[in-house]
Amino acid sequence: MLADYLTKELDRTGHMVPGLAVAGFLWTAIVKVGGQPPGFVSIDGKRYSIEVIYVTPEHRGHGVATMILVGVARACPQQLALKAPLSPGGEALGARLGLPSVESTPEEIREMQETIQHAEIPWPTSAGRRGSCRRSS
C-alpha cells in the first residue's frame, strides 16, 4: 500500500513525495475497515497535523478518508490540521471538514530531504549511464 502511494505520487509529481510516511517525527497507522486495509495515515503528533493520508483506489469515494480524519480529529487535544502541499482531493476534503492547512517547518523539510536522498537508488540505464528513481519533469 505504501509502495502504491509512493509510485502514484511519483507519477503525479515527477519526484519523490515530500510527505513521506516514514519520517522520524511521524506516527503512521494502517487503517482497517471490515478487516481490510483500505489506507494509512501519518500523523505529526507534535504539530497535531496529518502529514499523509492515503486511501487505495478501490476504496475511494466511500468516505474512508473522512472517517479517518474525523476519528483522528476527535482524539486530537487541539485543532487538527493538514500539512501542505495537498493533493486536489486533500484540499477539497480539508475544506469540507473545516481543517486548516499548515506548512512544514524548515527542520521537517530538511529531514524529509534526507529521507528522500536515502531513498534514491541508482540503477543502470539502457545507455549504460546511471539513473535514479527521481524522475525529471
UniProtKB/TrEMBL annotation:
It holds the Pfam family Acetyltransf_1. Residues 1-117 form the N-acetyltransferase domain. PROSITE patterns: GNAT. Keywords: Plasmid. This is GNAT family N-acetyltransferase.
